[in-house]
Amino acid sequence: MExxxxxxxxxxxxxxxxxxxxxxLNDHPNVSAEARERVLRVIExxxxxxxxxxxxxxxxxxxxxxxxxxxxxxxSLANGYWPLLYSGLFERGLERGYFVSLSMVxxxxxxxxxxxxxxxxxxxxxxxxxxxxxxVASTLDADGAPTVLIGQDSSWDAFSSVDIxxxxxxxxxxxxxxxxxxxxxxxxxxxxxxEESTHRRRGIERALSEAxxxxxxxxxxxxxxxxxxxHAIVQAWxxxxxxxxxxxCASDTMAMGALLxxxxxxxxxxxxxxxxxxxxxxxxxxxxxxxxxxRQPVYEKGQAAIDLLVDQIETAETDPVHxxxxxxxxxxQSCGAQQxx
Amino acid sequence: MExxxxxxxxxxxxxxxxxxxxxxLNDHPNVSAEARERVLRVIExxxxxxxxxxxxxxxxxxxxxxxxxxxxxxxSLANGYWPLLYSGLFERGLERGYFVSLSMVxxxxxxxxxxxxxxxxxxxxxxxxxxxxxxVASTLDADGAPTVLIGQDSSWDAFSSVDIxxxxxxxxxxxxxxxxxxxxxxxxxxxxxxEESTHRRRGIERALSEAxxxxxxxxxxxxxxxxxxxHAIVQAWxxxxxxxxxxxCASDTMAMGALLxxxxxxxxxxxxxxxxxxxxxxxxxxxxxxxxxxRQPVYEKGQAAIDLLVDQIETAETDPVHxxxxxxxxxxQSCGAQQxx
DNA sequence: CCGGAGATCGGAACCGCTTCCAAACCCTCA
DNA sequence: TGAGGGTTTGGAAGCGGTTCCGATCTCCGG
Lengths: 341, 341
Known about the structure:
2 copies of one chain form a homodimer.
Chain A: H1 7-13, H2 18-25, H3 33-46, H4 52-59, E1 64-70, H5 81-95, E2 99-105, H6 110-118, E3 124-128, H7 134-143, E4 147-150, E5 160-164, H8 166-179, E6 185-189, H9 195-210, E7 220-222, H10 227-239, E8 246-249, H11 252-264, E9 274-279, E10 292-295, H12 298-315, E11 322-325, E12 328-330
Parallel strand pairs in A: 1-2, 1-3, 3-4, 4-5, 5-11, 6-7, 6-8, 8-9, 9-10
Antiparallel strand pairs in A: 10-12
Helix pairs in contact in A: 1-2, 5-12, 6-7, 8-9, 10-11
The structure holds a DNA duplex.
């Protein structure tokens, strides 16, 4: 099959003008049934595809959106959260007629990305935050390019955003622990700099204080969402023999690390130490014991982000919309609650 | 800053014709120092960027390459291998002047991807295989688009490819085990359908037979590279009380699963069971005990793929090149070898 | 039988850039 | 001083589409 046909060649073969071909390509009215028929046959026979580049130039739309995701450290993509999020983005994008592609922006390439970002190649951007790179964000902001954030970042609230209600999630985890009667609770939090983890913290603290449970300072630790940090914190508590009776971990990965450390140090879960995580990564259900955790609808987050973005592109609406999805407690076995069914 | 300037506006402000501006943009000769100077100043002052779309149309080059990666199951991106590979791709791409973007192709969107792929938007493609989707591959093949494969797939050897020498890796793992004197060795292999895992298997089997070590059929199992599969296999062996003295796992993720199971079943590693993995994922060094494994240069794989691809794009060379990178045994503690320093 | 509305079509301008080519310019050397 | 060579320049034609608009065709009712 020779390819690389142009619209003119199609026109010629179909005995019509290029305008007519363009019209059938775009489902415009005012083309006779016979003409349409002929054009379609030529297209079919020669497997013709219009050049998206030319179309882009003419219409100033590319039907492509770009997902910009940070790469910090080797681990950034290394857990089940990301593929799920991307799937939501990719698939919903295609459904809505947009091709989505992903780029990792690391510090050393930030300005090149910025260059690329600016040149109107894309109709819009999704910034996977938890640390938007400021350069890129401010460029996008200045350009007025349609952009939506995944995750919260109040310094960029001119952008639309999608996130879950982190405080609510923390609250439910806390409630669960309190309902089960635990009173000595340890908190393994995420970095103080992430609004997300601040909210999770506030949520659980509210639950505890409502239940009249206080947490000791020595039982509050800050990790960085990595498995290693969870491991280290629990190990430290074990060494000092000040293990709490229950643990709240601000991420499943930290919970996994904690679980590992608990295991090594001989604590039985949940008999001696209960543990609740956050995220409900695919791996959570395979943990030993299966992890009770706060599920966040990751795939849906991706979908929602695309919806927001596409709406913004297509309506030229510029007022930011902030969407919050509801998290949901998933009770498994790591807290000792009896499970239903 | 108003933006969206066109080359004509720049030309006007700099008192030259659009041709001159184009020449300075592309570092072409034959523009006087003064003219160049004026043009550059206007560009600078107005923060002008040429439209890559228009440029693309005119030159038939986009300086973009696309990485197509399969999404099968939620776990496909879920380990440290991917971010490393992508970093290699992205960063080397930028170094060579190409913007690389990633798309996940799942079955339900395959034909849309194919559409997109064909329309000359990209200068080339990297297929992350271990299961190239046939539709996409054959389209690319038919179009003669520059394409390179990461991983091996002999049914597509018209494409250039990058891979490591899997047999060699398997061989070194086997040698290590034999050198340490293990004689009862279990093999936890990857799927038979993956050439990669067939090669790994052949490698270790050669090492064992050279050392005169035989492996019992009951000690050969096929997993799917997932942690769960490693876990399940070891658990089965434990239940039947036929645990080998040493384990070769065809991937680190399976090794992690195996480690977990070993732990649960009360086997000490490496005192009672030695274990060697494959890949050297970032997580391998944090395992308990740190995992002896065959390191594959993942980042370099990404780089090499881009190099091959860009060379092919720029020289219009169509003969495929098959590159094999060398794996390397990384001795840590899971096999009981004494470590240097 | 004619005028006019509506459907259909083709011509041409345009999107923003590259590139070929001929024209203008500047020097140098015979 | 004038021819000839090399620089520098601008004009114009593409690249492959979309879209506006005026021309043509059809068909109907008066």
